[in-house]
Amino acid sequence: MTTFSVIMATYNRGRHILPSIQSVLSQTCRDFELLVVGDCCTDDTADVVRALASPQIRWLNLPEHGGSQAFPNNAGIEMSCGRYIAYLGHDDIWAADNLQALADLFGNSPQSYFVVS
Fold first, then answer.
1. Residues with Cβ < 8 Å from 94, sequence gap 6 or more?
2. d(CA 44, CA 27)
3. CB neighbours (10 Å) of residue 25?
4. Region 49-57: what's the mean pLDDT?
């Protein structure tokens, strides 16, 4: 089982999404999948995501525009294989040790956590 399923909901961010994706691909903790879920994107977002050709990335474009982040987030949860879910906005960037810090926190305690950063 993958440790982290990173869900990135997006809508027509092809011109701007690459730095966010690269911040996930640059993580020091490599045990993740990145699920980029489009809310019925009509721009070049799919092309940008597919051009990265990473086995850690999966792309899904919803057939109908839901109009809120909840629709692609829920679709991402349904596709996820990770033990933990981590959300990243399509215009946010993580520090390279973000997932490792979470893995360290979760690994040091048998308790359940909900972490917001």
1. 23, 24, 27, 88
2. 25
3. 13
4. 96
